[in-house]
Amino acid sequence: MQYCTFYLDKKHYGIPMMEVQEVMLQQDLTPVPLAPSVVRGLMNLRGNIVLSIDIRRRLGLPESDPTQDSIQIITQGPAGLVGWMVDQMGEVADLDPAAGEIPPGTVPAANRELTQSVFQLESGLLMVLDGQRILEMEQDRLEGIREGSRELA
Amino acid sequence: MNDDMQKQLIQDLVIESLEGLDSFDAEMLALEEKEGNTQEHLRLAFRMIHTVKGSSGCLGFESIEKVAHAGENLLSLLRDEVITVDHAVISGLLQCSDALREMMHGLEAGSSPDASRHADLIQLLDGLQKAGMSQAEQGFGFFDGAPGAPMPAAAAGLAQTGWGLFEDEPAPAPIVPEEVLIEEVALKSDVPSASQGPRASESAIRVEVAQIDRLMNLVGELVLARNQILQLAGDKADPALLGPIQRVNLITTELQASVMKTRMQTVQTVWSKFPRLVRDLSQELGKKVVLTMEGQETELDRTVIEAIKDPLTHIVRNSIDHGLEDPAGRRDSGKNETGTLCLRAFHEGGQVVLQISDDGRGIDPARISKKAIERGLITKEDAARLSEREILNLIFLAGFSTAEKVTNVSGRGVGMDVVRSNVEKIGGTVELTSIVGAGTTMQIRIPLTLAIVPALLVSCCGARFAIPQASLLELVRLDPTNPARSIEWVDQAPVLRLRGKLLALLDLGPALGLSSQPIAEEAFVVVVEASGRKFGVVVDAVLDSEEIVVKPLHIVLKALGVFAGATILGDGQVALILDISGLARRGGLNAENKTLDQDRVDQNLLVPDGSEHLRLLMARVAQNRVAFPLEEVTRIEEIPASSIERSGPREVLQYRGRIMPLVRIGDCLGEPRLAAAADDLLRVVVCQMRGTQTGLIIDSIEDIFEERVLVERFGNERCIAGSLVAGGLVADLLDLERIADFAGMVRKN
Lengths: 153, 749
Hints:
The complex is a heterodimer. Chain A has a single domain (2-152), classed as CATH 2.40.50.180. Helices cover 21% and strands 43% of the residues of chain A. Chain A is built from three helices and ten strands, in the order E-E-E-E-E-H-E-E-E-H-E-E-H. Chain A is globular. Chain B folds into five domains: 3-197, Four Helix Bundle (Hemerythrin (Met), subunit A) (Up-down Bundle); 209-265, Histidine kinase  CheA-like, homodimeric domain (Helix Hairpins), CATH 1.10.287.560; 267-447, Histidine kinase-like ATPase, C-terminal domain (Heat Shock Protein 90, 2-Layer Sandwich), CATH 3.30.565; 452-598, CATH 2.40.50.180; 607-742, CATH 2.40.50.180. Chain B is globular. In chain B, the strands form six sheets. Chain B has a six-stranded mixed sheet with strand order 10-14-15-13-12-11. In chain B, strands 21-25-26-24-23-22 form a six-stranded mixed sheet. A five-stranded mixed sheet of chain B has the order 2-4-5-7-6. In chain B, 40% of the residues lie in helices and 26% in strands. The two termini of chain B are 54 Å apart. Chain B is built from 24 helices and 29 strands. The interface between A and B is medium-sized, with 29 and 29 residues.
């Protein structure tokens, strides 16, 4: 199976190639008020609306350098187009899914849930992320907040 | 035959048969009502069921064929007048169509049809034939046995081998006596059915809905690209480029209109199910109901049609179950035993209005408010403050049901709130009016389409947002020098005095977490209404009104509950569309913040006889107060006096690329014309008059009222239909027909 790999804060991550539609340079974003912090905004991709996500905060990574152009990996999910903000693209890795291991228990629980599997490459470790799960968690979080505010009211 | 081809054939069979069965039902109902030519109804019904039988037989679905065959046999006896049309026969045939429909849905889902489930039905149909036959036996002895007998094995075999690929081929199972067949052939050849014109298959093709949706998306993108090109060209106009750009512009607009048109379906697609529903329900409940339908040809986008299907069905069920009385009850109250249920559809102000009215017992506001208090939905104090109209609309609250007994049909406490939320989801509104003892009318206003909606663009804290026109009432520009136009505070809550009533305000910046700055003195208030709540949204500036292409939001953002979607603006940037109901919820504008209309309560107590429910736009012309029927008004514009041009004796205006004739209402009323400075702003009410957009010039707009008014005629003024009192003010109702005469306008088709 092929994985599209990329770097965030010099760490090597990947997502299944099947989900990737295209890769593009960062474009103008329209911020979405009240949205969770991972949502960087909406952008126009040839008439389609793409939700741009920056997962640094969820992975506990430092904020990105605003002076550097970032790259968006566009994926087509069941709920619409999503753009993942990354620092730099990596190679396409052709790996046997069976060789992937689940992240060890010492990884913080939140990160463990976002990481599908870890591959040992010669150049270092490759962490394959579960994009769908990341979005689901954001949605749950939002709905939780809404429920909470309703109870308060 | 490969799998794909087989699948395609089955799908075609299902679609064709379901359509055929719908019209079969319609023919049956017409037959029962004895409308029109009996033989013609029978012929059409026969042809439809025959097609179902033939096509399913050809694909080897023997059990479908069997059921269709039983129905066909019964029909052929009806056609030959061996048996007569009666209630039992029609019911049997309708059941047959239900069974076929069920099997078709089964086929669609991939299960193989099973006739044994319908053995009872086949027996019933056979029984009906025999019953009819035994009556007719003396006269038509030679029919003995043949039609009534169950399908002989030989014939079934024949049906299997017969490749009746074309519906015009002779029936694969010639069970009916021979002369019937000959007659059928003769009928087909010499009556090409003038009303139908060319066969549908020749003038139309079937296109997948997904394909049209794709087309629509592409056109949406083209519109955006066009807007961008226009903006760029506007700045640096190269004359050589302007020509082609103009052409692209025009073609895009036309293309958009044509694709939209392809997606349009008539209201009839939903309504066609109702005659059957009404018949079945009224029988079940022992009521007599006549269903009348007006405006079936009104067109709506297919997404809208889908969305209103369930709410409409629910309202129709409710009207029959709760609205209309049983025959005895109707007789007691001096009405005709047969109740009337009327469905109407028409266009008004760029929207489509659907009305469902019955002449039943009406809804008693006292009972509604009692129930609402019992259920803890409102307090006693609330009830005393609410107007009659507001009380009636309480039935849209969740958990409200006044049915004394829960019936099979309706009355489980879910319903009207779902109806309202479904209608609001597509940007529509629903309202109820009722007169005790005389009937109830439910009015649904919905946009023509969901894909492209008119919206107002506003800006707030540097971001742009779109507000759908459907929820927009008016705009107010704040002016610190005018107390009626400046913000005042009730504790921490900002309010505005809007024509003597307090309007709750929601400051968009803080509500969206964009700013914590106090409201600017010269901000704008966008007055909106959603879920029966009227409030003002404070924004920094009002930018433009634009037709926007609505794009769905990612599911993660839907959970925010304040945005209805997103759109791409002319400059390629994305803007969010505000969800007004969601915003109201978030802003804590609950029912207590309703603007209560005391005047309305008082007036509702005095409803004069002969009054009618009108929506009026009140305006001033010199010393006169005039009222326009709002349904005739398409827009209100402000134009500088200098933009008026002349065409012959007429004053005209260039309006949206066309010439619009202008009429001064002052002239119609015989008021002297005052000289206007070139930069004076004139207010123009744009109306559709005799098929032409016409601008009616007035001095100022006063207000909009919706209430029951009595129009009385005292004098014989040229352009006035009569005088009325609305909102406590006397006004003259304009007669647009006479104004058109006055202005010498020709009739256009």
